[in-house]
């Protein structure tokens, strides 16, 4: 049995959907951002002190460690985790679900973006930066994903049901 890994852009609902999916599957839910914070402190402060490159290195270590856990889990990755070639390689042995989101949905969820360091740098409006980051990463998300949950499936419950149905139809070994 493998992990179910949720990937996608910032504000796509990976943490919320991951927790609900884990409850439905009877598995633990692990949010890599929360794990990172527990180990290294708040992400915005880590970014400010050490920079993005150091953050990505530590993030890749955390993700690799969590994906290697012997207990199958639902794991929500940070939006930029897929930038790491190492992580993309590790995801090949997992059941990977991309949660998609529209610009309008993301804008409603990111607010002032103070807890999202990738959206607060460069002087751009957070939603404009989000759009640019999403455009750059979308091909990686789609390449890594075994299944994509449409942005039109906006409720948490519907997203969870869609994922479970896709798992049953596709790769039953993940259940």
From TrEMBL:
ATP binds at residues 11-16, 116. The keyword Kinase applies. Its main location: cytoplasm. Binds 1 Mg(2+) ion per subunit. This is Shikimate kinase. One of its GO terms (biological process) is chorismate biosynthetic process. It catalyses: shikimate + ATP = 3-phosphoshikimate + ADP + H(+). Its cofactor is Mg(2+). Its EC number is 2.7.1.71. Pathway: Metabolic intermediate biosynthesis; chorismate biosynthesis; chorismate from D-erythrose 4-phosphate and phosphoenolpyruvate: step 5/7. Mg(2+) binds at residue 15. Belongs to the shikimate kinase family. It holds the Pfam family SKI. Keywords: Amino-acid biosynthesis, Aromatic amino acid biosynthesis, ATP-binding, Cytoplasm, Kinase, Magnesium, Metal-binding, Nucleotide-binding, Transferase. It is an enzyme of class 2 (transferase). Catalyzes the specific phosphorylation of the 3-hydroxyl group of shikimic acid using ATP as a cosubstrate. HAMAP family: Shikimate_kinase. The lineage of its organism: Bacteria, Bacillati, Actinomycetota, Actinomycetes, Micrococcales. One of its GO terms (molecular function) is ATP binding.
């Amino acid at each position: 049995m493998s992990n179910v890994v949720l990937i996608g852009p910032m504000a796509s609902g990976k943490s919320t959907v991951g927790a609900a999916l884990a409850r439905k599957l009877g598995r633990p839910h692990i949010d890599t951002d929360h794990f990172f914070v527990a180990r290294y402190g708040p992400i915005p402060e880590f970014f400010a002190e050490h920079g993005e490159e150091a953050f990505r290195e530590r993030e890749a270590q955390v993700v690799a460690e969590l994906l290697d856990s012997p207990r199958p889990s639902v794991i929500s990755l940070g939006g930029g985790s897929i930038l790491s070639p190492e992580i993309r390689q590790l995801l090949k042995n997992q059941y990977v679900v991309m949660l998609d989101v529209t610009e309008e949905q993301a804008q409603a969820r990111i607010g002032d973006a103070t807890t999202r360091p990738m959206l607060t740098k460069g002087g751009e409006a957070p939603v404009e930066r989000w759009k640019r980051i999403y455009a750059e990463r979308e091909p990686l998300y789609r390449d890594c994903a075994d299944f994509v949950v449409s942005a039109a499936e906006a409720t948490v419950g519907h997203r969870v049901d869609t994922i479970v149905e896709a798992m049953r139809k596709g790769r039953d070994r993940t259940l």
